[in-house]
Write a structure and sequence with these properties.
The protein is mostly helical and 280 residues long. It contains twelve helices and no strands.
């Protein structure tokens, strides 16, 4: 199940391209999560679970950071960044989460994480800078990095703010609702018109909403409950691999810089996630 979730997340980087060909980044983000939130509400109703307004502040904060912040900068980034670059930058997320966890939750990173972080940063730098071929950083890559920081901050805040006495599905639904509202307001303020996409873009958006949003979340949580968070985290490495495979299938194989960067990033994340002894 973790592999399926990682596949959906990796495919998001490729699916974003046809969506952004017809929609602005603001409208794409709002449309994606209005649909995802609606499906989550339906799931909650089918399960006959109860919504509570007691935790709205936590849901608002998490929705603004994890749904609004992440998705807005993700779509802004994918306007100019490549699917492979975007996926490789996002692959740093476990390491970024560890760094922010140290500053916010005072959780000391493991020795493996301290070693892995500069290696992962070096891998992303090679990807973004083109292995020294040209020192030009795409604005899209910067936006994707901001999106990755938003998601890392969300992961940390979940540990601090997520209600303990509410089911994960209900909490995620509340978070998606606030995030969708924030994205919709941003699109309206930006004066971007909501458009009806073609079948090609619409099917991509639907897959991002249901596959990369709803199903990936459900599969990921099921995997964490069976494998544990550290073992499940290793499957995050499949995200850039999936993006590379889909891009290659579309006639856009990775270049040497992306392959070298992928090797460093994936090795760093794997090294930081796997415990070889109780002392690690």
């Amino acid at each position: 199940m973790a592999a399926v979730a990682a596949f959906f997340w990796g495919a998001n980087f490729n699916l974003a391209k046809p969506v952004l060909a017809e929609m602005s980044a603001y409208v794409a983000g709002a449309s994606r999560y209005l649909l995802a939130a609606a499906v989550m509400v339906l799931i909650v109703l089918i399960r006959k679970e109860v919504f509570s307004t007691a935790h709205w502040k936590a849901y608002l904060t998490l929705g603004v950071v994890g749904v609004f912040g992440f998705n807005l900068f993700f779509f802004l980034g994918m306007e100019t960044s490549s699917a492979i670059n975007g996926a490789l930058i996002m692959a740093l997320n476990p390491l970024l989460t560890a760094v922010l966890g140290y500053f916010i939750l005072k959780e000391k990173p493991s020795n493996r994480q301290l070693i892995a972080f500069p290696v992962g940063i070096a891998g992303v730098a090679i990807v973004v800078l083109g292995a020294g071929a040209h020192l030009v950083v795409s604005p899209g890559d910067i936006f994707i990095l901001i999106a990755a920081l938003n998601w890392a901050l969300y992961n940390v805040l979940v540990k601090k703010l997520m209600p303990k006495n509410v089911s994960g599905i209900v909490s995620s639904t509340g978070i998606m609702i606030f995030g969708a509202i924030a994205l919709t307001i941003a699109a309206a303020v930006h004066h971007d018109p909501f458009v009806v996409p073609t079948i090609h873009a619409g099917s991509a958006l639907l897959t991002m909403s249901l596959g990369g949003g709803v199903l990936a979340y459900l599969f990921w949580n099921a995997s964490i409950s069976t494998l544990g968070p550290s073992k499940a985290a290793i499957f995050i490495n499949l995200v850039p691999v999936t993006a590379m495979m889909i891009a290659a299938f579309q006639g856009l194989p990775p270049n040497h810089a992306q392959l070298l960067g992928a090797l460093l990033v994936i090795s760093a994340v794997t090294f930081s996630s796997v415990s070889f002894s109780k002392a690690d």
